[in-house]
Specification:
The structure holds two protein chains of two kinds. By secondary structure, chain A is mainly alpha-helical. Chain A contains four helices and no strands. By secondary structure, chain B is an all-alpha fold. Chain B has helices spanning about 1-25, 25-45, 50-75, 90-115, 140-150, 155-175, 180-195. Classes of the chains: A mainly alpha, B mainly alpha.
């Protein structure tokens, strides 16, 4: 079924984006280093962006590309804040994993 | 034929980079795999006709975001390799991979089931307003710019507020707390006692 879908042009992008999203989610669930988990979240955002652009192409609507533009802006803001939190955390406790901060306290 | 080749090669790069991110023990290597994955996505954007977004993808994601990641890694010196052989939580790794596979399978099933019988993908219908491919075909940047600065102007302005909030938040988070007056007095006392 997947191979049949891959022959279809836009569906191939959607399947690729779905697999990319799955890999990203597995990374968030498996890895314990906060930085690597953050990178996996970026992977998931990219998978969603790819889906948006594929639908934009398929439906001939520029709205999908505008959505990707806003996702990019929000991702940039999110990375700034997230890395700020991670820097503050790792400065206080070097080598901390996410398990060490499960109480959300300094 | 060329289309299929381009798609295949960039799909391998995207997925290889993604798997590299979650399997590399050294966070610096993971960040570099992330660059490969983002470049692959940029190629796919070009393939889909989103030229502006492809450029922005390279500039913002690989140029700014990954460099930020690497800066943090270098700044904190946390580029030690992580020991992945120990599994602190029993069954977590298998459960995580299974959940990832499950999410991917659910999404693929949705796409396949919704595209099997129809010409139109999922529940969407081709747009009448805001056409992407006008005739004669305008440049992608022109279409996108017109959409952002007319239909989506309010959202665009709101993102500037979001960016200001992000900057202020980053400054607040990165600031080292200044010592209070009592702490300074205490420190002065200890210095006096020592000699």
């Amino acid at each position: 079924v997947i191979l049949a879908a891959l022959r279809d042009d836009p569906a191939a992008y959607l399947v690729l984006a779905a697999i990319l999203f799955g890999v990203g989610s597995a990374g968030v669930l498996v890895r314990r280093n906060p930085l690597v988990m953050f990178m996996c979240i970026e992977l998931q955002l990219n998978a969603v962006n790819l889906t948006f652009v594929a639908f934009s192409r398929e439906l001939n609507d520029v709205g999908g590309q505008v959505s990707v533009f806003f996702v990019l802006v929000v991702a940039a803001a999110e990375v700034v804040i997230g890395l700020g939190i991670i820097v503050a955390l790792l400065r206080r406790r070097p080598g901390a994993t996410v398990d060490d901060v499960r109480m959300l306290k300094g | 034929m060329v289309d299929v080749l381009v798609f295949g090669v960039s799909a391998v790069i995207v997925l290889g980079g993604a798997v590299g991110v979650i399997t590399m023990r050294n966070p610096v290597h993971a960040a570099l795999c992330l660059v490969a994955s983002f470049f692959g996505v940029a190629v796919l954007f070009v393939d889909l006709g989103a030229h502006f977004l492809a450029a922005v993808q390279v500039i913002v994601y690989t140029g700014a975001i990954v460099v930020l990641f690497l800066f943090v890694l270098m700044l904190l010196g946390v580029d030690k390799t992580e020991d992945l052989t120990v599994e602190p939580l029993g069954g977590q790794r298998i459960a995580g991979v299974l959940a990832g596979v499950g999410i991917a399978a659910a999404l693929i099933a949705t796409f396949v089931l919704t595209t099997r019988d129809h010409d139109v993908l999922a529940t969407g219908t081709p747009s009448l307003a805001g056409e992407l491919l006008t005739d004669p075909a305008e440049a992608n940047i022109e279409v996108l710019g017109r959409a952002i600065f007319t239909d989506y102007l309010f959202a665009f302005e709101i993102t500037s507020v979001l960016l200001v909030i992000a900057v202020v938040g980053a400054v607040v988070l990165a600031r080292t707390p200044r010592a209070t007056a009592e702490e300074l007095a205490e420190r002065a006392e200890t210095v006096e006692v020592e000699p």
